[in-house]
Amino acid sequence: MHDFCMSEELALDFSIDELDLSVVSALQLNPRASWAEVGRVLGVDASTVSRRWTGLADAGAAWVSCQPLFTPVPALAFVEITTAAGRALDVAAELAGDAQAMTIDVSAGARDLLVTAVCVDAYQLSAYLLERVSRIPDVRSVQSHIIAGAYAEASQWRLRSLDAQQEARVRATLPKRPGESARRELGERDHALVAALSRDGRASLAELAEVIGASETTARRRLDALIARGQIRLRCELARDLTGFPVSEWFFVRVPSDRIDAAAKSLATIPEVRAVLSAAGPFNLLVAVWLRNVVDGQRLETQVMRKLPHIEFVDRSVVIRPFKLVGRMLDARGFATGVVPLELGRVIV
Fold first, then answer.
1. Span 100-128, mean pLDDT?
2. What's the rounded Cα separation, in Å, for the pair 324 and 320?
3. Interatomic CA distance for residues 32 and 26, integer angstroms
4. Which of 59, 105, 230, 343 could form a disulfide with 319 if both were Cys (CB 3.0 to 4.6 A apart)?
5. Global pTM?
6. What dihedral angle (degrees, nearest 10) is formed by the CA atoms of 149, 155, 159, 162?
7. Largest interatomic CA distance in the chain
8. How far is 79 from 91, CA to CA, in rounded Å?
9. Distance CA 328, CA 96 (A)
């Protein structure tokens, strides 16, 4: 499960500067941009960009992950878990090895763990929740919220370390992909490619070709096809403690049904908001935010209620320990220590 690890001492001593943030910002826009392309945008040479990224990646401070989207609409659930006293980390560690447990947060408040679960269909999702999660020793209760849609996704959150002109230049480096929309059955090579990209979303074509036992041309073609068909999403992440927004919170929101769309779209425009999910259940919107401090969460809530008085913030939870993010295992500061590829099974799509 753990393909790399980093000492806690290194994580505590690690720091970054504006150039590091700019490199990560560029890769948030184009995760596989070449170092030469990033260097031209930032006004530095390619070797400097490569060296900076290697330092970040080796420390687990930043990484490019791969989120497979094998089905057009995968089955998603946001799961609240309460555990026996003092056993939250044990349950989190038990779940962390599951590909279906895409993201895991240890939280304060009415629930001990917040888990984003993903499966290829609703049948497998229900089986996972009922036959796997609920039966783990020390799990005391499970409340699941089926995700109906996303108005904002964490993969779209940006550091905003680049100016508008730099952002436009990075976006111009994105490859022009054919409008291929027809999905097809994934072969063994496709699954091997996804697993390799889950470990390192910036793996070279030579490395990917070796993994799938094919030429670099074939590796490039298959990679381009997976992206063009929307079957994978590459995303660049930075350890949360290094972003300037060390506090993570989830808001559990209730909105009148006829105002969900407008409210969700408004929430999605707030810079601190990482995700806005519509859900079936007692809370019809789930909102994730990254903040500079806990007080900012209270201020944000007040500002939103003034702008959108029909919104009811029913509950909130502060994340006290990140544990897993889109398959990436995290330490207490949010640094990557390993990876569990999101391999959800062989599916005809």
1. 94
2. 13
3. 10
4. 105
5. 0.90
6. -110
7. 58
8. 13
9. 9
Q: Say whether pLDDT at 65 is over 80.
A: yes
- What pLDDT was estimated at residue 109? 86
Distance between start and end Cα atoms, the chain: 27
pLDDT tens-digit series, residues 162-211: 999 999 999 999 877 655 555 666 778 888 898 899 999 999 999 999 99
- Residues 51-74: b if buried by 16+ CB within 10 A, e if exposed: ebbeebbebbbbbbbbbbbbbeeb
By the 10 Å C-beta count (0-12 exposed, 13-18 middle, 19+ buried), 210 is classed as: middle
Indicate whether 237 pLDDT > 70.
yes
